[in-house]
Amino acid sequence: MSSYAITGAARGIGFEFVNQLSTDPENTVFALVRSKTTADRLVALGRPNVHILEADITNTNGLKYAAAEVARITGSSLDYLINNAGFVESERDGLTLESYSSEELLTKDLLDSFKVNVVGVIHTINIFLPLLKNGKAKKVVTISSGVGDLDLTIGFEIATFAPYSISKAAVNMANAKYAAQYKSEGFVFLAISPGVVDTSTRPPTADELERFNVMIGKLRKVYPDFTGPITPETSVRMQLEVINRTTVDDTGAFISHKGNKEWL
Ligand SMILES: NC(=O)c1ccc[n+]([C@@H]2O[C@H](COP(=O)([O-])OP(=O)(O)OC[C@H]3O[C@@H](n4cnc5c(N)ncnc54)[C@H](OP(=O)(O)O)[C@@H]3O)[C@@H](O)[C@H]2O)c1
After folding, report:
1. Can you tell me the distance from the alpha carbon of 51 to that of 42, in angstroms, rounded to the nearest whole number?
2. CA-CA 20 to 30 A from 216: which of 134, 183, 253, 263?
3. Domain containing 136 — which CATH number?
4. For the chain, how many helices (H) and strands (E)?
5. Hey, which residues are catalytic here?
């Protein structure tokens, strides 16, 4: 019996974490969503062990409220925190750092990505740490991305998705900083890439499809067997296997859903 809090849980990978973890009625699962109005799929699960809480990770008051609710229900502990919420600017993700039409837009995309994907994650961890210290598992998982990996970026010549990739590389370092501080207390901090996962809620536009295909073309040069995105179900099943088998010896690692540096 374990307790889990997952941010960005209304859809995509976050929803699937809630879905798979709450199939065990012994688990208590806290699904943090930006707005309860978007939580239809979570409500439809109809599981009494799923608690839906509102928290935008850029709002520390909302996070503190959610942590207080978790504390009230668990008796002040939490076993696993899964930092899944993430921001992707999808209109301009095909641009490279020097090809923006204005300095203001570039600044905006860098700061928006950093605000959610780095600062929001750090505040979430800080606010839930007192509960995690009382937990049995002491595992903090941050969903990063293979595009935050230096070797992949250079080896595959991926110059696009820049603000997002930079923010994911930064959160990997935040993960390492927490690992450095909390290893002696038995904590496991993991940054994990979920693979390329189809979490779309609508068919791609022609532009999006073209950009995606350019990226996939580059990836296929190194992973010729890559057939396309995996489902959230497969990604989360593989991530949970990795999360469950990692120990304090792995703390600070940045690994994939396969438990290594294979990002696809
Ligand atoms: N899908 C992939 O192929 C892939 C690959 C690598 C890494 N990732 C990472 O995996 C994670 C989940 O990805 P996904 O594809 O499932 O994303 P998604 O379908 O776009 O869902 C993102 C989730 O994050 C939430 N969110 C965004 N900003 C937030 C904020 N400020 N506070 C709280 N929640 C916020 C969204 O809430 P709303 O529902 O309210 O919008 C949504 O529930 C992200 O961190 C992403 O960067 C995904």
Report:
1. 9
2. 253
3. 3.40.50.720
4. 9, 7
5. 164, 168
74-109: string of b/e by CB count within 10 Å (b at 16+)?
beeebbbbbbbbbbebeebbbbeeeebeeeeebeeb
Residue 194 contacts residue 254 (beta carbons within 8 Å): no
Torsion of CA 190, 229, 85, 161, to 10 degrees: 90
Q: How far is the CA of 11 from the centre of ligand 1 (A)?
A: 8
Tell me the pLDDT band of 232, cut-offs 50, 70 and 90: very high
99-133: pLDDT as tens digits: 999 999 999 999 999 999 999 999 999 999 999 99
DSSP conformation class of 223? -
Q: Which atom of ligand 1 is nearest to the CA of 57?
A: 32
Residue 139 maps to a domain: yes
Q: Could you tell me if the CB of 115 is within 6 A of ligand 1?
A: no
Is residue 262 assigned to a domain? no
**Are 167 and 117 contacting, i.e. CB atoms less than 8 angstroms apart?**
yes
Q: In this structure, what token pair is assigned to residue 154?
A: 């250079």
Residue 69 inside a domain? The answer is yes
Domain contains 261: no
Per-residue tokens: 55: 């928290």
What is the residue range of 36's domain? Answer: 3-256
Q: What is the pLDDT of residues 14-29, one digit of tens each?
A: 999 999 999 999 999 9
Ligand 1 centroid from CA 246, angstroms: 23
* Cα–Cα dist 121/113, whole Å: 11
11 lines ligand 1 (CB under 6 A): yes
